[in-house]
Target: LIM domain only protein 3-like protein
Amino acid sequence: MPECFGCHKIIRERYLLKALDQLWHEDCLKCACCDCRLGEVGSTLFTKANLILCKRDYLRFCVGDRFYLFENKILCEYDYEERMVFANLPQNSLDHIKRQTEILEAGSDAGSSGYGSSESPYTEHR
Model:
């Protein structure tokens, strides 16, 4: 007789579940967060940090591994690091980028192709 990996009791029921190469009672294979029976919510389960999770909780809790509080906002690690990079840049380097953008915008007109004249670089001259 097979033994349940969850409760370590013999599985005598007609149906059993196999997950993570182990056998389980239907009542023993549950989501670690919401305690739902995984056999009832679908055929897929997820694991994270040695926890067995249903799809909903996996997506809800494991979208990003790290979050930071920055200026009273919760940011994922990627956004937080991006803001730190910009925060550590000297202000004059950001002004330089802004000035370059303003110069480019002022020098362009609606009829320009962006190649310095109103003609396309592909215009054939005869």
Remarks:
- Residues 67-107 form one domain.
- The chain is about 30% helix and 15% strand.
- The two ends are 91 Å apart (CA to CA).
